[in-house]
Amino acid sequence: MAKALGVSGFEDDVRQKILSAAPGAETDEFGNVILRGRSKVAFVAHMDEVGLLVTSIEEDGRLKFRKVGGVDDRILPGSSVVLYGDGFRLEGVIGVAPPHFQQQQQQVSWQDLYIDVGATSRSEAEAMGITPMTPAAFSKRYAEVGKFVSATALDDRAGCWALLQTYKRSASATYVWTVQEEVGLLGARALARSLEGKYVVVVDTTACCHPNFTGNVRPGNGPVLRVFDNYGAYNNKLAKKVLEVAKKRGIPLQIGGGGGGTDAAAFFVSGIPAVSIGILTKYSHSPVEMAHRDDLRHTVELLSALAEELG
């Protein structure tokens, strides 16, 4: 999972790894993976990650691109990427003029940048398999940094992993891995009505930490019950049940908010009680996201408890 590539709309690599780890799971026509259980509770995490998409190939072989999802322009210059498609993976870099040639420090826009794959002509790049609409993911890394793990696309591979770990403990719940969350919750929106009658618990990362958005939450103190974000508040009745279960089982759970939104909004507006559990992540939407190992462990414990109590 750590090296899987899954830019929004191009999640097949992640999807295949989840299907291998969850026997009996199926893929719907939108690309979501669904493992249906007997109980009333469904756990949801998204498979996709922010990245880039090739839009054109220049005569000299350099690649113009657009951003997919919320990518900060400042992290792009000097980044390493992997372009991928049917049967190929190619390393590339996003270059920037060295300081020797810059008259003054200047703000660089993504529209001024190119991906360089070592091709010297358009035909050479095309011979590598690159075409317009080829996705490019940030090169994958994994490191243990003190009590944290640091990896590319922890948003939301951490949630995908948590669902798989919970599935090993409780097969009665429904487990869902969605597509295209980063570009508008599209997979969850397409799926929402077919999960009618269930409680939905979305597991995603939550950007850490800002007093006006997340409140007084801290890594290592447990996952976050995300009660409000840019999409509004979620189901308060279900949120209280989650808090009760956590307290009953002695599982640390923080209360906070978030910027942006999660798949929970897609289910909520379709009339399904939904809440979002956030794994606090530093440096969100960058190639070096960090999550506390205790928070990952406690998230799985909480989901396992919810599978029993809500089911």
Task: Return the structural class.
Answer: alpha+beta
CATH class of the largest domain: Alpha Beta
Overall number of domains: 2
Overall 3D form: globular
**Which runs of at least 5 residues are low in confidence (pLDDT < 50)?**
none
Tally of helical runs: 7
Describe it for me?
Helix content is 24%, strand content 29%. The protein is of the alpha+beta class. The protein has 2 domains: 12-49 and 152-310, Aminopeptidase; 52-138, Peptidase M42, domain 2 (Elongation Factor Tu (Ef-tu), domain 3, Beta Barrel). The strands form 2 sheets. Strands 1, 2, 3, 10, 11, 12, 13, 14, 15, 16, 17 and 18 form a 12-stranded mixed β-sheet that branches. The protein has a 6-stranded antiparallel β-sheet with strand order 5-4-9-6-7-8. Helix 5 packs across helix 7 (293-310). The longest helix is centred in the C-terminal third of the chain and has 18 residues, at 293-310. It starts with 11 loop residues before the first helix and ends with a helix.
What's a quick, concise take on this entry?
The chain has 311 residues and is of the alpha+beta class.
Key structural traits:
single chain, 311 residues, alpha+beta, Aminopeptidase, Elongation Factor Tu (Ef-tu), domain 3, 2 domains, 12-stranded mixed β-sheet, 6-stranded antiparallel β-sheet, 7 helices, 18 strands, 29% strand
Helix and strand layout, with pairings?
Elements (H helix, E strand, L loop, with lengths): L11 H10 L4 E2 L5 E3 L5 E6 L4 E7 L5 E6 L11 E6 L2 E7 L20 E2 L5 H6 L7 E4 L3 E4 L2 E4 L2 H16 L4 E5 L7 H6 L7 E9 L16 E6 L2 E2 L2 H14 L4 E4 L6 H5 L5 E9 L6 E4 H18 L1
Parallel strand pairs: 3-12, 3-13, 13-17, 14-16
Antiparallel strand pairs: 1-2, 2-12, 4-5, 4-9, 6-7, 6-9, 7-8, 10-11, 11-18, 14-15, 14-17, 17-18
Helix pairs in contact: 3-7, 5-7
